[in-house]
Automatic annotation (TrEMBL):
Stored PROSITE patterns: HTH_TETR_2
Gene3D superfamilies: Tetracycline Repressor, domain 2
Any single Pfam family the record assigns to this protein: TetR_C_32
Ranges of the DNA-binding region feature: 40-59
Keyword DNA-binding: yes
Protein name listed in UniProt: Transcriptional regulator, TetR family
GO terms, molecular function: DNA-binding transcription factor activity; transcription cis-regulatory region binding
Keywords: DNA-binding
HTH tetR-type domain boundaries: 18-77
InterPro entries in the cross-refs: Homeodomain-like_sf, HTH-type_TetR-like_transc_reg, HTH_TetR, Tet_transcr_reg_TetR-rel_C_sf, TetR_C_32
Length: 234
C-alpha cells in the first residue's frame, strides 16, 4: 500500500469520525431533552439505535461525550447572543433595548431546552462538577466574553473607561444565570416574558446610572407594570 493511499484512508476515517461524533452528540441532545439531565449512556445509545461499545469508539468516556454536548449548547447560546449583537451593529439600538433582547434571547433558548440547560449549568453528569472543579461545559466564559465586548463598546461609545466591562459582564451573567436556574424549577411563579422584563429592569437600573454619569439623558425607571403591587396576584 502506498503512503498516498494510506494517507487518503486516514483522512476519510478522520472525516467519518468527526461526522459520526456529531451524529452521536445529536442523539445525546435528543435523549437529554426527552429523559432529563441525568440520562445515562445506555439511554443515549438506545436513542441512537446503537450500543455503548460503539459510542465509546468515538468518545474517550462518558465525560468526553457529555462535555461535547455541553459545548454544543454553549455554541447555541453564543450564536443567539451574537445575533443580537450583529443586529445592533446593523441597526443601532439603545442600550436598554439591547439588554432586553439579549436576556430574551437567552431565556428563549432555556425555555425551549430546559433539560439541556440544567445539564450545562449544573453539570450534574460530570464527575469534575461533583468535585467542585470547573469543566469545559461551563457556559459562563464564552457568554461573558460576548457581553463584556458589548458593554465595552457601549462604555467607549459614551466616553467612559471600558475596563469596567469585565466585572460588569461577569456580574450580569452570574445574575441572569442564577435567576434562570431558579425559574427552571419554578416556571409557574413567573412567565418567561415577565422574567425577561424583571431581569432587564433590575439590570437597567444600574446600567442607567453608568450612562447618566457620562452625561447621557437616559430613563432609569422600569417599564410600566414590571414591579406589581403586592395584591396583584390575588
Amino acid at each position: 500500500m502506498s503512503r498516498l493511499t494510506a494517507d487518503g484512508r486516514s483522512a476519510r476515517w478522520a472525516e467519518h469520525r468527526v461526522a459520526r461524533r456529531e451524529e452521536l452528540i445529536d442523539h445525546a441532545v435528543t435523549a437529554i431533552g426527552e429523559y432529563g439531565s441525568e440520562v445515562g449512556v445506555d439511554r443515549i445509545a438506545a436513542t441512537a439505535g446503537t450500543s455503548k461499545a460503539v459510542i465509546y469508539r468515538y468518545f474517550a468516556d462518558k465525560g468526553d461525550l457529555y462535555r461535547c454536548v455541553g459545548r454544543r449548547v454553549i455554541d447555541q447560546i453564543v450564536d443567539a447572543l451574537q445575533a443580537v449583537h450583529t443586529a445592533a451593529d446593523e441597526q443601532p439600538t439603545d442600550p436598554r433595548s439591547l439588554l432586553f433582547r439579549a436576556i430574551d434571547g437567552y431565556l428563549s433558548l432555556l425555555d425551549d431546552n430546559p433539560e439541556l440547560f440544567r445539564f450545562v449549568a449544573q453539570h450534574r453528569l460530570l464527575p469534575e462538577a461533583r468535585a467542585g472543579r470547573p469543566t469545559p461545559a461551563d457556559h459562563s466564559d464564552p457568554v461573558t466574553a460576548i457581553l463584556t465586548r458589548v458593554l465595552g463598546d457601549q462604555l467607549r461609545g459614551c466616553g467612559l473607561d471600558p475596563a469596567g466591562a469585565q466585572p460588569w459582564g461577569e456580574a450580569a451573567v452570574g445574575f441572569i444565570r442564577a435567576a434562570s436556574l431558579w425559574w427552571l424549577d419554578h416556571p409557574r411563579d413567573m412567565t418567561r416574558p415577565q422574567l425577561t422584563e424583571y431581569l432587564a429592569a433590575l439590570l437597567w437600573g444600574g446600567a442607567a446610572g453608568v450612562f447618566q454619569s457620562a452625561g447621557l439623558a437616559v430613563d432609569a425607571r422600569p417599564a410600566a407594570g414590571v414591579f406589581r403591587p403586592a395584591d396583584s396576584r390575588t
